[in-house]
Amino acid sequence: MELRQLRYFVEVAEREHISEAAEHLHVAQSAVSRQISNLEEELGTALFERVGRNVKLTQIGKTFLEHSVAALKAIDFAVKQVEEYLDPAKGTIKIGFPTSLASYVLPTVISAFKKQYPNVQFHLRQGSYRYLIEAVKNRELNLAFLGPVPPNDESIHTSILFSEKVHALLPANHPLANLERINLSDLRKENFVLFPEGYILNKVAVDACKAAGFVPNVTTVGEDMDALKGLVAAGIGVTLLPESSLYDSTPRLTVKMAVENPAITRTVGVIYPTNRELGPSEQVFLKFIDSFFSRLNQFL
């Protein structure tokens, strides 16, 4: 059994079409068909069945696909480790991040790292809280930044980098806009604009309001940080956002307000899998961010 056969098999399985797989692989259709046939002959069973011009996996083909994908990921990772062992400063790191860390934390860290390690490449993927955790577990991502840091899980390592406050963002003409700080209960009669249910920052905001003795009246939701800021600026409602998402500047026509009683905080950190050893470039990056935030925390 050859690696080429496995790669051709996975490509055909994902596209369910031999000619499209061949086009994507930049090889002749006959070559793909021949390798699939050789693989089925070696295994002693059919992996595909024809459905019109397309092909569909057989039941045992679905099982073989699952293990083939895992095997190819493991082999690709092994090759990557050898390459990085020879030169850790020239590796590639796949990093996931949520929208709340996209505007300040992530670019600040990567920019600082690239000054010391200009030849390390990054593949960046923005995603939801749950997606990022699962993507790290199944090796789709090498590591991910998250806030708040998830609870203990045997499949992932967690490392807290810093803690930050969550602020209220109010329209500039709001009656409370001239205060230095507010109690969260002061917003009990307000309309809220939040991330949709299922988003971690929705849970952070709703749990904080419940701790203050009320359930927020969520009238509008948005899946993007800038969208929420824009809704507040338009006077649609108020929101609660992490401090780092407001570092660069407070959006026009809004006021950032410190919240107390209860004070709301969240942890921010990085997660990486427990079921494999980190590659040399990843180890260099983790060591760098640990040092970077340790120095930063001294001034906070």
From TrEMBL:
GO terms for cellular component: protein-DNA complex. Keywords: DNA-binding, Transcription, Transcription regulation. One of its GO terms (molecular function) is DNA-binding transcription factor activity. Pfam families: HTH_1, LysR_substrate. Residues 1-58 form the HTH lysR-type domain. Belongs to the LysR transcriptional regulatory family. PANTHER family: HTH-TYPE TRANSCRIPTIONAL REGULATOR CYNR, TRANSCRIPTIONAL DUAL REGULATOR HCAR-RELATED. This is LysR family transcriptional regulator. It comes from Ureibacillus yapensis.
